[in-house]
Predict the structure.
Amino acid sequence: MKIFIPMAGKGTRLRPFTLTCPKPLLKIIDKPIVEHLIDQITSRLTTQIDEIIYILGDKAYFNSDVVSSLTLIAKKYNAKTKVYRQLDQLGTGHAIMCAEESLHGPSIVAYADTMIQGQISIEPDVDGIIWVKKVEDPSSYGVVSLDEKNNIIDLIEKPHKYVSDLAVVGIYYFKDISVIRDELKIHLNDKLNPGKEYLLNYGIERMIEKKRVFKSQEIETWMDCGTPKLLIESAKKIMSSKIILEENNSFIKSGNVKITQPVFIGKNVKIKDSEIGPFVSIGDDTEISNSNIESTLIYKNVKVSNADIKNSILGQYSVYDGSNKEIFLGDYSQINDNEEN
C-alpha cells in the first residue's frame, strides 16, 4: 500500500505561521499535522504502508530541510519516501498526476490539511473508498450521493439543493490507482476555461460511469487545519482524546502554578506564577510567567509574561508581554505592550 500526500500549497490562510514552515509541518502538540494524518490512517490499517509519496511545491519553499523532515516521518512507519514537485497549482488531479510514475497498485490519497479520528478499513471487493463525515450544512462542502446499495453514484461540489449530508473529508482509497491515472491523463489534455482546475473528482466520476464500485466510509471526527482558529479547534479535539504524558510533571515551576488538563508541556519549560489550561500546548524551551493561558498553541523557545490569553497561537522564538485576549504572533515576532517608554 502507498500513501500519496499532495501538499504543494503555501498555506496562505495560516499566515504568519506558514511564512517559513509549510502547513503540514506545523506541530500540533507533539508532532506535525502530516504525521498526525499518517498516524491516524496507519493505526487503523492492517495493511503495511510500503511507501509515502509527497507531492511538494517549489524548492525555494519546500527545501531540503522539508524533504529531510518528511523522510524521517516516513521512516517511523518503515516506509520508503518519494518526492515529486507540483510547480504549477492546477488542481487536485494535476497534483496527483505529478506523481504519475508512482501511480500503480493499491493506494490512499490524503490531503495534508486534513486530520481524522475513526474507522479506516479497506474493503477488498471495491474499486475505491471515499471517507466522509456528516455535516449540518452540505452546501459548503463536496458531498457524495449514494444509491440503494450504498454505492457512490455521484460527487457534487457545494450543492445548492440537498442531495446528501455526507461531506468528503479528503481521503481516498483506490484498489489500483493506475485506473484513475489513465482517466486523469485524458483529463489533462482538456483545455480549461479560466478559473477552472484539473480535479481528482473528474477521474473518480469517470470510473463510476464505467461501473467501478466506490463505497463511502464515515469517520467519527474530521479536523480541518486551514486557518489559525481551525488549527486551535483541531488541537483541542486531539488533546481531548489523548492521554497526556507524565512529561507534564517534569517542567520547572516556581511560585503559584496551576495546571488544568488537558495540557501538553514540552522539554525544559519554565512556568512561574501562572494558570495554564485547559487545552494548551507548550513547546520546548519556553518560559511563561505571571500569565493566564487557555486554548492556546505555544511553539518552542517562546517567552510569555503578564498575559491573559485564550484561543491564541504564539510562533517559535516569539516574545509576548501584553494584554490582548487573543493573539496570533508569528515566528521571531515580539510584542511588549507593558514596556515603559
